[in-house]
């Protein structure tokens, strides 16, 4: 039996076993403009979360052997979309990210960065699914036997494989600190840190993420949004802002904007409720 634990929409804990949603926790967020825009969800409840998880399972095989790991560029804006652009333009060599059924993986193909990272985030735990591991490439999976999620070890694997310009997605400030320490120990590599899934972090964590990250999403995080508005050198988006805290981060976001074209600012943009 495989088991996958996700902090899903609404930052609710969801457990999926053998392709079935078996547990849905209480959501901490009632409204998300992204799910409203793309899925028509006006209120996040346990029922709408379960329906959305089942939709993902049925539409692209999330947490099942039929998982699709590649997707074409949808010309939207987000972290996975930005990483996909950076890979396509050969600005970075690979991305260390997390995939259901694999755990921490190394991704070199733009379509896989989008297909893996653009559809699901917030994995707490996953189990190995051989078919997904094969599609991603066993040699690109940190631990095919356990599907371990460990971004620090993922960076070490990328360095061992000879990559020099490496992006890493993280969800914790402690990971950001450790990644920067590894970068200092390896003078011939560049590490670019992208923080995702920031909803619910505290002020200290937001401060640390702004110190270590090149790019961070605001999500439904009150602290990350406040830190971004005060400390970021560049911002894209209003409803779900993405902040750049370094010149590299700004360059990366601008590269994505070049790809999709700048959009006019929204009047009275909707934001998640409540911010946590």
Which descriptors would you attach to this protein?
276 residues; alpha/beta; 2 domains; 4-stranded antiparallel beta sheet; 10 helices; 38% helix
Q: Which structural category do the helix and sheet elements fall into?
A: alpha/beta
Shape: globular
Please report the distance between the alpha carbons of the first and last residues.
34 Å
Q: Helix proportion of residues, in percent?
A: 25-40%
Number of helices: 10
Main β sheet profile: 7 strands, mixed
Biggest sheet strand line-up: 5-4-7-8-9-11-10
Total discrete domains: 2
If you compute it from the alpha carbons, what radius of gyration comes out, rounded to the nearest whole angstrom?
18 Å
Mean pLDDT figure: 96
User: β content, as a range?
Assistant: 15-25%
- How many distinct beta strands? 11
**What series of H and E elements makes up the topology?**
EEEHHHEEHEHHEHEHEHEEH
Low-confidence stretches: none
Protein name: Methanogenesis marker protein 8
Organism: Methanobrevibacter curvatus
Pfam families: DUF2099
Describe the fold and architecture:
- The protein is an alpha/beta fold and 276 residues long.
- It folds into 2 domains: 1-64, no CATH class; 69-260, no CATH class.
- The chain has helices at residues 33-39, 46-60, 79-88, 110-117, 130-136, 151-160, 173-185, 203-212, 222-231, 247-260; strands spanning 3-7, 13-17, 20-24, 94-99, 103-107, 123-125, 165-170, 190-195, 215-217, 234-236, 242-244.
- A 7-stranded mixed β-sheet has the order 5-4-7-8-9-11-10, sandwiched between helices.
- A hairpin with a 5-residue loop joins strand 10 and strand 11 (242-244).
- Helix 8 packs across helix 9 (222-231).
- The longest helix is centred in the N-terminal third of the chain and has 15 residues, at 46-60.
- It is globular and about 50 Å long.
- The mean pLDDT is 96.
């Amino acid at each position: 039996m495989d088991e996958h634990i996700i902090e899903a929409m609404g930052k609710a804990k969801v457990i999926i076993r053998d392709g079935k949603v078996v547990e849905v926790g209480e959501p901490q967020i009632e409204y998300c403009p992204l799910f409203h825009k793309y899925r028509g969800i006006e209120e996040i409840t346990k029922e709408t979360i379960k329906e959305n998880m089942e939709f993902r399972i049925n539409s692209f095989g999330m947490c099942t052997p039929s998982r699709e790991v590649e997707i074409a560029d949808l010309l939207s804006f987000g972290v996975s979309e930005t990483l996909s652009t950076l890979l396509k333009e050969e600005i970075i060599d690979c991305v260390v990210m997390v995939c259901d059924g694999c755990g921490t993986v190394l991704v070199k193909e733009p379509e896989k960065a989008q297909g893996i990272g653009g559809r699901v985030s917030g994995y707490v735990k996953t189990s190995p699914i051989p078919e997904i591991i094969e599609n991603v490439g066993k040699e690109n999976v940190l631990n095919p036997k356990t599907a371990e999620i460990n971004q620090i070890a993922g960076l070490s694997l990328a360095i061992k494989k000879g990559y020099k310009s490496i992006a890493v997605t993280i969800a914790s400030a402690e990971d950001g600190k450790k990644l920067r320490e590894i970068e200092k120990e390896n003078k011939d590599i560049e590490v670019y840190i992208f923080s995702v899934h920031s909803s619910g972090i505290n002020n200290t964590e937001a401060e640390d993420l702004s110190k270590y990250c090149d790019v961070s999403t605001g999500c439904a995080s009150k602290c990350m949004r406040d830190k971004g508005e005060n400390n970021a050198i560049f911002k894209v988006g209003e409803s779900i802002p993405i902040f750049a805290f370094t010149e590299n981060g700004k360059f990366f976001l601008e590269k994505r904007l070049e790809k999709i074209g700048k959009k006019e600012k929204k009047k009275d943009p909707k934001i998640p409720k409540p911010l946590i």
